[in-house]
Design brief:
The chain is of the alpha/beta class. The protein is 41% helix and 15% strand. Helix 1 packs across helix 2 and helix 2 runs parallel beside helix 4. The longest helix has 17 residues.
């Protein structure tokens, strides 16, 4: 939601409101992993004891993304994931004592302190490649891995390093997602198990993509449904339109505003409820406490839009007049 101290405050407000799931990224200038990690640590560390590991107890889930300019090698992808996990969740690691034997002499036992790593929830590829204007780091990017080879590194993050529980893709086209699915299937049919330094093939667990009522990412969502991949929507409230044109045709839509009045809800609550009831996960951002608490209430309550009104919002994706 912000950088530096503003990011720290936003994460703390979200924690106070009851949120335990956070999404960030490694791309500097847009995201601040260090501030996120500090906010989480400041909130939980006072209660962190080995006998009662607070991060597991609270079911804390943090996801992040490797940017396209860092897809330099399989080893580099694994290193970046390890570094991000440490920055964001290193405070969650639980110390454990392992008994060893000095030189094999009976009675010469020593205790070595180790830690049980607390993994990221999802580690994403932020985008398969750079495109002009996306980020300043894309202007003079080095040669990076093709998406299939980069996916091998992602599989190692989960299957060998255990630095994340799940892996995912972001900002891909339908054909790119289908190609990774086929790549995994081909290897599953020929091997399917870990072999030495190679982890087992793994399907994308999650896909993160831009989706709102006017641009609902229908094809990507259909692929995800067919292959049991979680679909996470970003910019669900129409912020992509606002960034490009200065106006927001989603929250400004007559249909959305009429529904908000009918349900006595905000326009944001209407749009987010539509996304949730249509099977999407959502990751809206805010640095305003009132908005954060409003969203927390929405996520923890029962769905409220009826099917007829959901269909009205669905129709916005086919109605260019809404733009």
């Amino acid at each position: 939601a912000a950088l530096g101290e503003a990011c720290f405050k936003s994460v703390t407000m979200a924690l106070d409101a009851g949120f335990r799931k956070f999404d960030t990224a490694e791309a500097e200038y847009w995201y601040d992993q260090e501030a996120v990690g500090k906010a989480l640590g400041s909130f939980f560390v006072p209660e962190l004891i080995a006998e009662d590991p607070i991060c597991s107890k609270e079911d804390l889930k943090v996801s992040t993304k490797i940017p396209p300019w860092e897809l330099l090698s399989i080893d580099h992808i694994r290193t970046r994931a390890a570094e991000s996990r440490e920055t964001l969740l290193g405070f969650c690691d639980v110390p454990i004592l392992s008994e060893g034997n000095n030189d094999g002499v009976r009675g010469g036992e020593s205790e070595e302190t180790k830690s049980l790593k607390y993994p990221l929830d999802v580690y994403y590829i932020h985008a398969p490649k750079c495109w002009p204007g996306w980020h300043s780091r894309c202007d003079n990017v080095k040669e990076t891995l093709p998406l299939r080879e980069a996916w091998l590194g992602m599989e190692a993050v989960v299957g060998l390093d255990h630095n994340a529980e799940r892996i995912g893709l972001s900002n891909v086209h339908p054909d790119e997602l289908l190609d990774i699915i086929q790549f995994v299937k081909d290897r599953e049919s020929s091997s399917g198990t870990a072999n030495g330094a190679n982890p087992p093939p793994r399907m994308p667990d999650v896909l993160q993509a831009y989706a709102d009522p006017l641009r609902p990412a229908s094809e990507l969502r259909q692929i995800c449904e067919e292959h049991n991949i979680e679909f996470v929507s970003y910019s669900t409230l129409g912020t992509q339109h606002a960034m490009r044109s200065g106006s927001n045709p989603v929250l400004g839509s007559a249909s959305i505003n009429e529904l908000a009045k009918s349900y006595d809800r905000s326009t944001a609550e209407i749009v987010l409820s539509w996304a949730l009831q249509r099977g999407m996960s959502v990751i809206p951002r805010s640095n305003k406490e009132a908005h954060i608490r409003q969203l927390a209430n929405l996520l923890f309550e029962d769905p409220f839009l009826n099917e007829e009104d959901l269909a009205i919002i669905d129709e916005m994706g086919n109605d260019l007049n809404e733009l």
